[in-house]
Amino acid sequence: MTEAARAARPAGPPIALQLVALLICSLIGAQAMTLAVVLLAPLPKPAVYRLSEVAEALRGGSLSPRYGRPLARQTAARAPDDAKGVNWRDERARRELAALLGVPEARVALAGRRAPWWSAMFGVGRGPPGGPRDVEPGRPSRQSPPDGRPPGQRFAGPERALFDDFTAAVEERPGRWMVVTSTPEPFPNDWQRRVCLWFIGSLALVAPAGYLFARRITAPLRRFAQAAERLGRDPHAAPLTLSGPAEVGAAARAFNEMQGRIRRYVEDRTAMVGAISHDLRTPLARIRFKVEAAPAPMKAAILSDIGQMETMISAVLSFIRDASEPSARERLDLLSLVECVVDDAALVGGDVAIVDEETAAVLGDPAALQRLFANLIGNALKYGSAARVRVSRAAEAVRVDIEDDGPGLPSAELERVFQPFYRSDRARNLDQGGVGLGLALARSTARAHGGDIVLTSCPAGLTATVTLPAIDPGR
């Protein structure tokens, strides 16, 4: 096992185990909050309406009971449907209410309105179902009266009470009923507000802890992604030395081994091509020596071909040298670097200028990036009469547009010109000494920095767009 692989050996528990621990802690926290709500947030007391208070309201008196919510009163042509007794407790309370009112039982209607089944879960309708609370003589009450009397003392006679919602009606004269109903409980009530505040406070305490726990679990994955992204920009980056869960450590070891194999593969192929290109110079030198005795017309043609081959070999060796020996990356002001290239081109008589600029920082090899922009600006001046440069920043990337006023390229050749040794028809016709490696080397440099180069034809000429990852100004 390599040193880098040993350095990436996992030091923490597996992610699955950490997630199970987070789940268990969350369940324990939720149960603790529920228990605290039950113990520390007492349930609301039910609304209590004495029959004497209901009778007074039906006679036109006060609508404000001592222990219940305010009552509502109205008249109707007949008894409401929900005021008809539905059980024996309602019937007993109706008979006692009729006695308090001094009217026949047939002229009185009373029924408790049952709350929905889900209401008890949210603190609504906490009283006994059925409305009236009927306590048999001699049977102790299981609930203390709301006025503080000791358990066992019951509501009797005029003290008999209705709990929670009810509807009561009395017929004053034929065709006219006086109806009294309990007003609905407000939402949210005091108990619901206390519970909501408790849960909000619990969430404020638990959420940061859960966030920190989850962040601790995912931090190694985030660092792994950042290291992989750096490797994409710099193929010669150092191996990963991540620590964390077992899964991340295993992935880091596999990543380091893959990186080593890819690096050896590229180095072997690069060395082979370099050796072949270098060794070709020897037979070319012998051919140049032997052609001296050839007739003048043939000699000139052969020497021209030999010169072109030597130029191509020199370009290949330069390409291999630049690709296999990258310089150290450093923080650069890309606008300043582009300005230097533009000034150099202008010194030799080129019509080049920066027409739009924005400061942006990148991490890169200054010499390689300078060659990249010099090549693109040189092409713009070679195939056109002027070059205009724009430097801008979009989102997390820096964009440099180099526009020329030349004839452009057909859409079919916009990608082919990036192939090594490919030259368009116009380039071959101009015959200005190029061998077709400039754009290939420029794109290779851009992609090695995590960016790219794209060519776009427009009516005014051709635009070369370079994009590079931007870094924060304070980095």
Outline of the structure:
The protein has twelve helices and 14 strands. It is an alpha+beta fold and 475 residues long.
Structure overview:
This protein has 475 residues and is of the alpha+beta class. The chain folds into three domains: 3-39 and 193-252, no CATH class; 48-188, no CATH class; 328-475, Histidine kinase-like ATPase, C-terminal domain (Heat Shock Protein 90, 2-Layer Sandwich). It has twelve helices and 14 strands. It has helices at residues 3-7, 15-40, 51-58, 88-101, 190-233, 246-279, 281-290, 296-324, 334-347, 366-383, 425-430, 438-448; strands at 48-50, 71-76, 108-112, 132-133, 161-163, 166-173, 176-182, 330-333, 352-356, 361-364, 387-394, 397-404, 452-458, 461-469. The strands form four sheets. The chain has a five-stranded mixed β-sheet with strand order 9-11-12-14-13. Strands 2-7-6-3 form a four-stranded antiparallel β-sheet. The chain has a three-stranded antiparallel β-sheet with strand order 1-5-4. Strand 13 (452-458) and strand 14 form a beta hairpin. Helix 3 packs across helix 4 and helix 6 runs antiparallel to helix 8. The chain is elongated and about 145 Å long. The protein starts with a helix and ends in a 6-residue tail after the last strand. Mean pLDDT is 76; it is low at 1-10 and 116-158.
Blueprint of the fold:
Elements: H1 3-7, H2 15-40, E1 48-50, H3 51-58, E2 71-76, H4 88-101, E3 108-112, E4 132-133, E5 161-163, E6 166-173, E7 176-182, H5 190-233, H6 246-279, H7 281-290, H8 296-324, E8 330-333, H9 334-347, E9 352-356, E10 361-364, H10 366-383, E11 387-394, E12 397-404, H11 425-430, H12 438-448, E13 452-458, E14 461-469
Parallel strand pairs: 9-11
Antiparallel strand pairs: 1-5, 2-7, 3-6, 4-5, 6-7, 8-10, 11-12, 12-14, 13-14
Helix pairs in contact: 2-5, 3-4, 6-8, 7-8, 9-10, 10-12
